[in-house]
Amino acid sequence: MRSSHTDVLVVGGGIIGLVTAWRAAQRGLGVAVVDPEPGGGAALVAAGMLAAVSELDHGEQTLLGLNIASARLYPDFVAELESVTGRDTGYRACGTLAVALDSDDRAQLRELHALQRRSGLESEWLTGRECRRLEPMLAPGVRGGLRVDGDHQIDPRRLAAALVTACERAGVVFHRAWAGRLRVVGDRAAGVTLAGGPERGAELDAGQVVIAGGSLSGRLAGVPDDVVAPVRPVKGQVLRLTVPRPYAPFLSRTLRAEVRGSHIYLVPRENGELVLGATSEELGWDTTVTAGGVYELLRDAHELLPGITELPLTETRAGLRPTSPDNAPLLGPTALPGLHLATGHHRNGVLLTPVTGRVMATVLTTGELPDDARPFAPGRFSPAASARLEQHA
Ligand code: GLY
After folding, report:
1. How far is the CA of 297 from the centre of ligand 1 (A)?
2. For 94-151+232-323, which CATH superfamily applies?
3. pLDDT tens digits for 81-99?
4. How far is the CA of 29 from the centre of ligand 1 (A)?
5. Could you tell me the distance, in angstroms and rounded to a whole number, from the CA of residue 48 to the centre of ligand 1?
6. Where are the domains of the chain?
7. If you take atom 1 of ligand 1, which residue's CA is the nearest one?
8. pTM for the complete prediction?
9. Ligand 1: which of 70, 347, 351, 352 to mutate, most ligand atoms within 8 Å of CB?
10. Span 6-44+158-230+325-392: which CATH code?
11. Where are the beta strands (DSSP E) in the chain?
């Protein structure tokens, strides 16, 4: 059974696959997406913080450049997406406040502030009192904080839905099925075979294949061992609460903290939803919501915002971050001609969506990775690159 040939076949219809498909179709390529439920994946769980500055971490300086580039693209990206689809993405330029509850947290936050300044990023140190003036619901024990006015938020579920519509309007074809196997003909990736649905067994031909399967990206059968995406799942449990109407001024910006070594954040949406995340657990493919996970998130959030326990708890969910060995994405061509990766975005998939679309569309139309994406080429984890690193170690 054979379907029509397309220029580009994207395996995975989460936000990364969709943005790749949309941007490639806008550049005149024929594009198809293979996914049983396009618009799903980790974006259905993610809180949607665009936290290039407040999630800065030691050792992730190269990634910072890409994160900042994508944060800068966001306003125009959202304006274009909303205008072509007529859909609201929930983008909100609200800023972020990171706070400390005890002297250890405060020392850590001071260190983050210093790292941000060394990296040329804007953030402002506030006393506990200044934090409470900004966010009156904060606990009296808050000892200080960092105000980051440039870190915003978007609703990832609405972003995913808008990207599906944008793809449809740009002529992207959807195959609502699992990709069962990569087809390799001669020395090239040539398409995929579908594993289920009405088109089961169909062989889809493509000039180029992009694997954008999130945490599943390394599991497509038929991919030669040396180009399998080195991506593992990192579980995150996330809660959704609702601020009842009429919305009391509960929280006006994203709030973050590190409480006893665990990151916690609260993202308030304009529609009253308050997203509370997230655990970070190396448990393979497990997506169980556990009593312990929910307890710890609520306990830590209650220390920051005691009023939170009054709010209805409307949803609990766990998702899987697609994580590479260096926490940075894998973008562009592999050593197998015709096969590309767009995966491994770890904690930054929503933030990196606009830049991933730009990078992947450039690669797919010109064959060249843009300069700012070269550090993220999948070849950095190839056996040859690893052997070189070991020699120099
Ligand atoms: N970027 C937030 C998270 O991955 O939990």
Report:
1. 14
2. D-Amino Acid Oxidase, subunit A, domain 2 (3.30.9.10)
3. 999 999 999 999 999 999 9
4. 33
5. 8
6. 6-44+158-230+325-392, 94-151+232-323
7. 347
8. 0.96
9. 347
10. 3.50.50.60
11. 2-11, 31-34, 49-50, 96-100, 124-127, 144-148, 152-153, 173-175, 179-185, 188-194, 203-211, 232-242, 254-259, 262-268, 273-277, 313-323, 330-333, 339-343
